[in-house]
Amino acid sequence: MTLEKYTEERKQKMLYELSKDYNKLVIAYVYAKNYLEYGVDVTRVWDTATLNTANLEKAYVKGRRDENERWNNSMNNLIDSIEHNIEHNEVR
Q1: How far is Cα 80 from Cα 73, in angstroms, rounded to an integer?
Q2: How many Å apart are CA 63 and CA 76, to the nearest integer?
Q3: How confident is the model at residue 21 (pLDDT cuts 50, 70, 90)?
């Protein structure tokens, strides 16, 4: 084995090890964010597939509900702003 080939293999192995750690960090971040935002720990081992499915559905429904609330709030703010502009003749 030549020195160049050995060096290249060593570099590839180091890059692989670094990327494994980075991927673990990213996955841990996503799990933590999901747990904080939706209150469901999807990493825990569940007794049955049904229970896991129910918890994932619960997290999905909560996420959709939160999304709808944010959208409704932004639309209400837009309507309030338009009404304010109309009252003060600021419509162009």
Answers
A1: 10
A2: 20
A3: confident
Q: Return the structure tokens found at 60.
A: 């999905």
Question: How far does the chain reach from its first CA to its final CA, in angstroms?
Answer: 77
Sign of CA dihedral 32, 34, 37, 41: negative
Residues 29 and 53 placed together within one structural domain of the fold: no
Residue whose structure tokens are 């209150």: 39
pTM as predicted: 0.41
Q: How would you class 42 by CB atoms within 10 Å of its CB: exposed for 0-12, middle for 13-18, buried for 19 or more?
A: middle
Domain count, the chain: 2
Residues 52 and 92 occupy one common structural domain: yes
